[in-house]
Amino acid sequence: MSFRERVYERARRARKHIVLPEGDDPRVRAAAARLEADGFGVVEVLGRPLPPSPVPGLIRHLRARRPDKFPTDAAARAALEHPLTFGACLVGAGLADVMVGGATFPSGDTIRAALWTVGTAPGIATVSGAFYMVRDETVLTFTDCAVVPEPTPAQLADAGAAAARDRRRIVGDEPVVAFLSYSTRGSATGERVERVRQAVSILQARGPGFVCDGELQGDAALVADVAARKAPGSPVAGRANVLVFPDLDSGNIAYKLVQRLGGWEAIGPILQGLARPVADLSRGATADDIVDTAVVAVLQAGERT
To answer: Could you read off the pLDDT of 164-178 as tens digits, one per residue?
Structure first.
């Protein structure tokens, strides 16, 4: 089976409860019909007005999670009028496994709803975005390509940790994480190189349970004979499958070049670093895009054993 077929098959076995909060959109309704017909689990499509039955429990959840933002029931109730906040709160409160939203709202609304209702995963303070770049049987994770414009060293470390965690769930192999730079192992110096080095040190100090290294140039991260010359002894060089880009410019440009000029399929953006899956859509998403995003988010939630 192809990578996509394997992902779909595993998601079918997971049988999760998927919430699509923008049910007034025809693309969302078409995606929901396909998800149900293909056996991906329970699909809940929300429309207007939003269902009142879980509202008291969701108000309690919001107020408990963010008393600074929602000091009163009225404040929490007002926030729940936003479909993305309502849908994400269902996930945060344990009433659903996955929310997929953003077909009609900007990404900031999705991320804000996720942080209010779900929060970040243990040990991670930053939400980031990844693309899974696929060609034949090769799958590379590119991060962060969607969220943080100028990450700090700690934010870069978070992006690498979150990408590694999700790669195990989505791809099913062991992450090998390369932090990219215009420098390899001291071949150049500068503030931007030092930021990448600090990110690697931060992540390694956490004892992440996977291999990571940097700073590495792209060819040293991916090509074994180049790595042998540029970074001998590196545990990552020449075999990386997770590429952590030093800023949003480089990550976003790289995935689009690989997609458009290299002919790779780009699956994403996939929000990562959250405690439970809340997925963001492009407002230009098709029904097929919504299905793909939902399927990946299902795997982020973990498979049934």
So the answer is: 999 999 999 999 999
Longest Cα–Cα distance in the chain? 63
Phi-psi domain of 273 (left: phi exceeds 0; alpha: psi -120 through 50; beta: other): left
Instruction: Please state whether the predicted TM-score (pTM) of the whole model is above 0.85.
Output: yes
In CATH terms, the fold of domain 128-265 is Rossmann fold (3.40.50)
At position 293, the amino acid (one-letter code) is T
Best-predicted range by mean pLDDT (116-125, 185-194, 277-286):
116-125
**Structural tokens at position 158:** 């978070």
Phi–psi pair at 131, nearest 5 degrees: -115, 140
Residues 61-105: tens digit of each pLDDT: 999 999 999 999 999 999 999 999 999 999 999 999 999 999 999
Burial of 126 (0-12, 13-18, 19+ CB in 10 A): buried
Each domain of the chain, given as residue ranges in start order, spans 3-119+274-300, 128-265
Q: What angle do CA 193, 196, 198 make, to 5 degrees?
A: 110
CA angle in degrees (0–180, nearest 5) for 110-116-118: 85
Q: Are 199 and 128 in contact (CB under 8 A)?
A: no
Beta bridge partners of residue 124, listed in sequence order: none
Long-range CB contacts (< 8 A, 24+ apart) of 103-106? 103/22, 103/25, 103/27, 103/28, 103/281, 103/283, 103/285, 103/290, 104/22, 104/24, 104/25, 104/283, 105/22, 105/283, 106/283
Per-residue pLDDT tens over the stretch 32-43: 999 999 999 999
Name the CATH topology of 3-119+274-300.
Answer: Rossmann fold (3.40.50)
Count of CB atoms within 10 A of residue 147's CB? 24
Assess whether the region 3-119+274-300 and the region 128-265 belong to the same CATH fold.
Answer: yes
In the numeric block, which tokens belong to residue 181? Answer: 């730079």
